[in-house]
User: Fold this.
Amino acid sequence: MDAFDGNAYRKRVLATLDKDFAAADPGSGDVFLVFDLDPAVTDAAAIRSRVDDVVAFWNRELSSPKYKGLVAQLSRRREDYTAVLLDPTSRRAAADRVRAQRAAADTARYTDLDRLAGQLAGRFGGIPPDRVPTLRALATRRGLSAGDFAAWLGRHRVLAGATAPAEPWDAAVRRQIRDQLDELARTEDRGDGYPTLWAFLGVVPNASREQVQARHAELVAGLGASRHNRAKTLRGDLLGHVKTRLLAEDGAARYAASLRADARDRIEPDVTEQAVVAGEVSAADYEALVARIVGFGWGLDSDAARAVVRETASGVGVSLAVAPAVDYVLCGACRTPQPAAARTLETRCRYCGEPLFTACPACGEAVETAASVCPRCGESLQAVRAALALTRTAEEHLTAGRPAAAREAGMQARDGLAASRVPAALSRVLARADAALVSAGAEWAALADDESAGRLFGAYDRALRLARSAADVPGGAGLLPEQEVVRLGDRRAGVLAEVDAARRLAPPAAEAALCAILDRVPDAAEAAVALERLPLAPPVDVTASAEGEQGALISWLRSPARGVVGYRVQRVTPGPGGSLDRATVARTSTTSLHDAGAPGGVSLVYEVTAVAGRRASEAAASDPLVLYRDVAALVADPSETSIALRWAAPPGNGRVVIGRTSAADSPLRLTPRRIVPAEHGRHVDADVPGGAVVVYRVSVEYARVAGPPVVTAGRSVTSRLRRPPRPVRDLFAAIRQGRTVVSFTPPAEGEVQVFATAGPAARPLAQPGESVDVTGLAARPGVRKVGTGQRRVIDQHAAGRVVYTPVTVGADGAVAGEAVEHVAANPVRNLVARDEGAQIVLTFAMPPGVTEAFVRWREDGYPQGPDDPAASGAKVTNTKLEIAGGFAIPAPPGGGPLYVAVYPAVRVDPSRPVVAVPVAALVAVRG
Assistant:
């Protein structure tokens, strides 16, 4: 079974059911057609998969404007369909019934074709090529597809001769294109319509494939820039037909055949009626049918129309009475076809009096007024005429300050033209209209912001500008600019009247009234000017007091003036020669202020001035204040040789002094000292005895005119010289009694912690003498704390290659010492030597984690280590030891003694051989 194809399903199934929905009945219709299945299919899984594919396609097609009603009806019958298709008994019965129905229908559809083919064979000896289109049209009306007709035609003899005419497109496709062309004309209010795809493209019917392709590309490019609406959708669909059908290899010929087929469909009822009533088509009726076909406006001239009438009459079996041929012209005004005696610009319609011909604006050729395209140069006449008229209209709208109407007219003009044929004047008009609309949108947004912020006068001015430049662009409330001018103008006049009334009041009342107006309308310039001419009351009860060591606190009672009042605070200090220095401390809207920069030891006066807009009151002053400010942020930073003191010195005329004494718990007693630091905010005491605990008090002295100086309480800090710990320089690791012992010489102060890292990539954790964070060191991945000790620590978990790093931890930090590398393993177990005369057989067990060992032996005493040059030896593996049942050593000649040592071996580096661990298990034989 073929994979499901949605496009093919629309053509084969939905188009058929749209014509005859009775075929969709689950009981009596063709349920296999509904799901595009062969009645012979029996695979339940394949049927279920096809049902799921089709139902999913129905759900997607619910948004289709053409078939959404049809698929909605099919979806409601889903359970009825599945009950037939998924039940084997019901499916077999339905398949038998459908096959019988299809056979009967096929027989009926082919009956008329077979009869006509027999008549043609009797008359001509076969089917003449010029009769094939008529037979094809008859087959289409009988429900046969193009493939069915081709198969039927292949069973008959077609006579040799002229090339057979092109096959028209499927009737459903022709109907879809016709409907979309008509709807597009209605949507765009195009009076002369789009009679054909050629007219839609703006090319002549005999245009080359390259010309059609170029025009298609132009319209596609223009489509992307056009507005999204129904017209854009229809244009996209029609351009799709052009791409897939008209631009096909035989597309133009098939479309011409399709137009002739549509014309035959239109006149066939009339021809049939003539056959029934008169037995023939009279000469007058013949010409009337020709005129009617020309009147369709499909580009079929008089000769083509006569051929269509002949083909239609032949198809229904009626004879024609022939009269002299007449050349018909279609009037562009009243759309009435009529004979034309002359093709001149003076020739007029006999029915409405309008000219039948007009000059092409591109080449000057006399062209029918009904023509969409000049047959000589291919210019789109209607689009050009409409575009030029709409461009002039758009320019008039812009001049009158109506950009919305200008853009609407310009878009109508552009939508009818390809992108490459848009006149430069139209492009300029559209660009100006778009810019005006953007500017209007920004102006409306600014107007709304102005009004929401109370800026009534600014909003009114913007409304005036909008009324001049964008009279047809409404704002957010839907009002046009002229309406907004009236609304805001009334409010503006009311505010101006209030200002005039306030000016006539006494100053306190006038101030209150004007401030109230400015609270509502801050850009009322007339109110602001009137308010600036009124005096401003100063603040009262200004006081200044010391705020601990943080500076001065200034407070006052607010000015009794109305409205928004701010305050300017100034600090007044004595200057040279009895002058006064004024420094602005801050501008604030509150009634208190902290002056952190107030200097100490000088007389301070604070003046507070009320400020409102351009108005300023007289200054109100505090009583004099003298501050005695202390140091702040005292810290001590000790090193191994000195102690550095840092502090924040206060502003002013004070002198910083330092007192140095011993702490109560100091092991050394110091003579008290008074120090005057040479640096501002810093002093380094390099004369501190080692071991002494020192107390520093930093104060400020302020001289007075009379009496002793004032000394502040100051700040104190206790410190001592730093004593960093000493690193361990002699770390050793050895295996004793099966355990790894890490030993060292203890430092004079502090404790020693030993850390281990294991494996081939293990490295020391820090450089000797480097300060470390012990807590962070222990948290590192792969780092193991072995323990803390005074002289040694025991590593119970040592195995393989291990790097030990000692860290001395003291009161003033932690420092790393010299690391040592160690290879650890337990000795072999259960070493036994069995004397077998000619050989000595050793048996033993490897320690955990060890799979290899080195065996060394001598005859004069035990080996001195795994690398003893006087010893003989070999390497043995766990596997070899187990398979051989032990390790054999040749017995010494003459029955002498043998001394054996076995050393475990470990691999410390994957790229290097194993290394013997100097932990021996010993055994003597004959000794």
